[in-house]
Amino acid sequence: MNKFGIFAILAVAALGTVQALPEDIEALNHGTHFEHFTAWLLEHKPHYRNNVEKVADRFKIFAKNLDKIREINAQNKSYYLGLTGLTDLTQEEYKQFYLNKELKSAKQTSTLPFTHANVEAVDKIDWRDKGAVTPVKNQGMCGSCWAFSSTGSMEGINFINSGKLISLSEEQLVNCDKTDHGCGGGLMDNAFKYVINNGGIDTEADFPYHAFSLWRTCPADKEGNHAVTITDYTDVPTKNKDALLQALSAQPVSIAIEADHFVFQNYRGGIITEDTCGDTLDHGVLAVGFDTTADTPYWIVKNSWGASWGESGYVRLAINVTDTSGQCGLLEHPVYPVINKN
Fold first, then answer.
1. Which secondary structure element, helix H or strand E, spans residue 80, and what is its range?
2. Is 340 a catalytic residue?
3. What is the DSSP letter of 302?
4. Active site residue 145
5. Which one of 21, 23, 62, 258 has the minimum C-beta count within 10 Å?
């Protein structure tokens, strides 16, 4: 066999090991940076078009990030990256505008013992399929992830208890919970304490989200509208995978992760399994399920960066990792609200 034939066989064999990427992700390998930027601009940031300096500045960052996305996708990982609404941000901007430094100091504060200790964990569950999860929301350029994580778990337990899925007000938590810091960050434990002390929380429809509230105004009529109430909250035992499986078998759970890395910023699909993150918590999200029967078992996590990020707004994180803190630290600080049925 000649050298050409040998090389051809090796090339085919190599191609056989490459992960098949979705069509829109594969398309990123073709076309110019400017072509991709123009299409991205129309979808994500149309308001940039009237600002020539802004467009030029963002294009430089976008092009650099696109090169890195292509480089990582060529490595045939268990996940893939693509264009998101955050692809025009530097790492510093991304951390400043979207993440939550308050979570780094998160401590377990619940006095209520773990209420799901006797629950038999199922093999897999997806609370979206059961109707307990509202559509993906978007926090915008505001470090209010803690509020979205909190409303998500309250929406879930309220549905489980009442059969009614009610979208709750992140704006109320951002504006009225004075223990936390609005767009400057906060803790899910504090949000639950606020709702308990306030006697409830308003609906999204009545007190809608505005992404950034400079004055954090808290209208008394909105704060006094108690669409959903909770009676307590409890922390899942830290660094305990089995306990989180038990809790998630019973209800959606608020969790905190470390998200300050390029992969998370530009994640579009697959299972994040590698050591791309640590356990320095900086982002509040919502665990809505898991699958321990998959070839690579994973947690299902709802984010708050809109449906164009990730898998329609969700990310899958590996369950079986060597780090006792879990993938991206998700086992460090899980917490969920409680509604007594009495």
1. strand 79-81
2. no
3. E
4. yes
5. 23
Beta bridge partners of 157: none
Residue 225: which residues within 8 A CB-CB, separation 6 or more? Answer: 200, 202, 203, 206, 207
> Does 128 reside within a domain?
yes
Rounded Cα distance between 95 and 259, Å, is: 9
Q: What are the counts of helices (DSSP H) followed by strands (DSSP E) for the chain? A: 11, 9
Is residue 182 located within the same domain as residue 289? Answer: yes
Closest CA to 313 of 329, 296, 301: 301
pLDDT tens digits along 192-211: 999 999 999 999 999 999 87
Q: Which of 145, 176, 183, 328 is catalytic?
A: 145
Residue 333 belongs to some domain of the structure = yes
Cβ atoms of 339 and 229 within 8 Å: the answer is yes
User: Which listed residue (116, 181, 283, 333) is catalytic?
Assistant: 283
- Domain presence at residue 187: yes
Of the residues 73, 175, 266, 303, only one is catalytic, namely 303
- Angle (CA) 316-317-322 rounded to 5° is 160
**Are 72 and 103 in the same domain?**
no
The answer to whether residue 13 scores a pLDDT higher than 70 is no
Amino acid of residue 6: I
What range defines the domain where residue 119 resides?
97-338
Helix axes 33-44, 52-73, angle to 10 degrees: 110
44 is an active site residue = no
Q: What is the rounded distance in angstroms from the CA atom of residue 311 to the CA atom of residue 284?
A: 18
Q: Are residues 29 and 108 in the same domain?
A: no
Residue 234 near residue 114, CB atoms below 8 Å: yes
Whether pLDDT at 322 is above 60:
yes
CA distance 250 to 240: 16
Q: pLDDT tens-digit profile of 109-139?
A: 788 999 999 999 999 999 999 999 999 999 9
Overall domain count for the chain? 2
